[in-house]
Specification:
There is one protein chain. By secondary structure, this protein is of the alpha+beta class. 45% of the residues lie in helices and 24% in strands.
Length: 697
């Protein structure tokens, strides 16, 4: 017992001794428990993760398989649109090229055809070995076939006119005509397309020309809301089976698509045991859309059986079944589990022997770190730190302390030393200066902002601007854009600094389109809430500029200066003149024209810049712009070429005609008015360059 009145002693242990005792008394038992628990739970967790993976893979497989049909449907829809616009064209041999281009693009189909209610039928097919074997009249050297059948005005026995080609576009290697009584209107997918006026997917059947299994597709053609025929295609089931074979769950798995009648549509190839397991497993999967079961085959091997129904909008009650051995997914984990147990036991024994020496070394390193922190607290930034540790975390602490000292030194340029002493932060030293670098410049502001600002309170305006800037910031940051500054309602941003962006021109265009897309969604929400709707105008320029820390030694900002900045600002303003949303310079367009659709607007001389600059409207991503808009774009550029050539009368006529076809296109109206003016009073004694001088900024 401690004697009354005796002094109390404070017991203090070093870091090494403390950690060794804590490890001995509190770690060994938990480690043993964790190892045992992990061993028992890993397999269960692995199976759970396997089920998640299989479910995701099944959904991907269904969606990807459906995509084969959707690709065909989309291209058939394009043909149907073309037929609707000019039915007579597809009753001429000229339309063979159109059908062939679709057939050549879609590798999963072997025939594409257009059939009319009047019996007229035109088809383009591939010629493969199956088709040559089925028809000995087909030349051996032919690879393509085109034919048409006369309409019913020629009688019930019409003529079928056939041509065979070795190379499409070259002269036919053979051609002949023979009578036929074929009536395409009697085909099931023709009748289904006619009755539903939707894409029709037929049942699997044997192509009489090739002997191969196919699924026939039909897309209705309407004219003035009246069914006039359909676009048909034959999708070969062998292609679907090949796709399933390539995209299996695992190396030893198998996949099959079945119809609602249980008949096989396509398969990756199943052995007898897999067929039996799937057949037995179907009884265990009443809800195939979410079906996932572990079954045992005839040889006692555990298998995972998954089923996924095709979505309702696909139009067919099909189900995808996949079966795979569990060991394909968890076999390695099981082996790893055993090795982990063995290694863990060895590691625990060795660690007990080495831990004391290690902790002694740690104590010395931590003592050095503590001394360094004490010196930093006194703002002594010259004390060296030498840790020389092999431990990653210790090295990281040393690096962080060096960064802290550098940052404190930098912060001392902005705030008094007394304040710096209270700060601990990491970061690189900030230095005055800039570098010459090629950047893409983004300049944007809100259309009609002055009017908006006049009608709401300043406090409300701040909130609305904050919401708008957040939307713009997200779009810019998604593509590694750097926001320089907010200027009232305007934004100056750039790409490729300080972070290097390999294709910064492309990123800037993506960001501009994303910003407009998100703002369009915001406008719907704002309109419903009775809030102001913001329309933004964006200018994009590219060029070499100076970027870096610009200012004075005691105060500077990371910013950008240069001609490209001025150009982007002027291009943003041009949107108001042409009624557009995004305008870019010709130099930028040259770098990204393969990724986006553009409309060449004009050639202008902007304020603050000599010479002419071609300016372009960013319409959207490739393959995403309405073909009708692209056609009007092409018509605009034809008129513009006439304008640049000095043919003002022709340009005025073309622009005027286009303005009557296109509503709400200020650019067409502007150019029509300018061309008419120049047609009445051409430029005198001046070499015409097509450059229009803008006097306003």
């Amino acid at each position: 017992m401690k004697q009354k009145g005796s002094p109390r002693r404070n017991v203090s242990l070093g870091f090494g001794a403390t950690m060794l005792l804590m490890f001995a008394f509190f770690s060994l038992l938990p480690i043993a428990f964790i190892i045992s628990f992990t061993y028992s739970q890993n397999e269960s967790s692995a199976i759970t993760n396997m089920k998640r993976q299989v479910s995701r893979n099944m959904s991907d497989a269904v969606n990807s398989t459906a995509l084969l049909f959707r690709q065909a449907e989309n291209n058939m829809a394009l043909i149907a649109k073309a037929v609707e616009a000019e039915p007579s064209y597809f009753k001429t041999t000229k339309s063979n090229d159109t059908l062939w281009s679709i057939l050549n693009y879609l590798g999963q189909i072997d025939a594409i055809y257009v059939s009319f209610e009047d019996g007229y039928h035109r088809v383009v097919t591939r010629v493969d070995e199956d088709r040559r074997r089925s028809d000995l009249s087909i030349p051996k050297n032919s690879n393509w076939h085109a034919s048409y059948i006369d309409d019913f005005s020629a009688g019930l026995l019409r003529a079928r006119h056939r041509q065979f080609f070795s190379v499409w576009g070259a002269d036919a290697v053979s051609s002949y005509s023979k009578t036929t009584n074929l009536d395409l209107r009697k085909l099931p997918h023709y009748r289904l397309a006619k009755s539903t006026l939707r894409m029709a997917i037929g049942e699997p059947s044997i192509n009489p020309d090739t002997g191969s299994a196919v699924i026939s597709l039909g897309y209705p053609i309407t004219k003035d809301s009246r069914f006039i025929g359909f676009v048909g295609a034959n999708l070969t089931l062998s292609n679907v089976s090949n796709y399933l074979r390539v995209n299996k769950l695992s190396e030893n798995s198998a996949t099959v698509i079945k119809g609602n009648d249980g008949l096989e549509i396509a398969s990756s190839g199943l052995n007898e045991a897999q067929v039996m397991a799937i057949g037995d497993g179907e009884k265990l999967l009443p809800n195939a859309a979410t079906g996932l079961k572990i079954v045992t085959d005839a040889f006692g091997e555990k298998l995972i059986l998954a089923a996924k129904s095709f979505p309702p909008h696909f139009g067919k009650d099909w189900t995808l079944f996949s079966i795979a051995a569990i060991d394909d997914f968890v076999g390695d984990i099981r082996a790893t589990n055993r090795r982990v147990m063995e290694v863990a036991l060895v590691v625990v024994v060795i660690s007990v022997l080495l831990i004391f020496l290690i902790f002694v070394r740690f104590s010395q390193t931590i003592r050095a770190i503590v001394d360094q922190l004490s010196a930093i607290g006194k703002f002594n930034l010259k004390l060296p730190l030498s840790t020389n540790s092999f431990v990653k975390e210790i090295k990281l602490v040393s690096t962080t302390l060096d960064q802290m000292k550098s940052s404190l030194s930098s912060f001392s340029r902005y705030v008094p030393v007394e304040v710096v002493r209270e700060l601990v932060a990491s970061g690189q030293s900030a230095e005055l200066g800039g570098e010459r670098r090629r950047l893409t410049i983004h300049f944007s502001d809100i259309a009609g902002f002055t009017s908006i600002a006049e009608n709401i309170q300043p406090e409300e305006l701040v909130v609305e601007l904050s919401d708008y800037f957040s939307t713009m910031r997200e779009a810019l940051h998604d593509y590694d854009g750097t926001i320089d500054k907010f200027m009232g309602d305007g934004i100056l941003a750039f790409f490729n600094a300080p972070l290097t962006v390999e294709k910064h021109e492309t990123s800037a265009c993506h960001a501009a389109l994303k910003a407009q897309e998100r703002l369009a969604i915001d406008r719907v929400r704002r309109g419903a809430e009775g809030r102001p709707e913001f329309h933004t105008r964006i200018g994009l320029g590219v060029g070499e500029v100076i970027v870096g820390n610009i200012g004075t030694p005691d105060r500077f900002a990371y910013t950008v200066i240069g001609d490209a900045v001025n150009l982007a600002s002027r291009l943003e303003g041009l949107n108001k003149f042409y009624g557009t949303s995004i305008i870019a310079s010709g130099e930028l367009v040259e770098s990204v024209e393969d990724y986006f659709e553009w409309r060449r607007l004009d050639r202008v001389s902007v304020a603050g810049r000599t010479g002419g600059t071609d300016v372009f409207e960013l319409m959207g991503h490739k393959d995403s712009v309405d073909p009708d808009l692209l056609a009007k774009r092409d018509a605009y550029e034809v008129a513009l070429e006439a304008y640049f050539a000095g043919d003002f009368t022709s340009a005025a006529k073309r622009f005027s005609e286009l303005s009557r076809l296109v509503s709400n296109d200020d650019a067409t109206v502007v150019m029509a008015r300018r061309a008419r003016k120049l047609a009445r009073r051409p430029p005198a004694d001046i070499e015409w360059t097509g450059v229009y001088a803008l006097t306003k900024k």
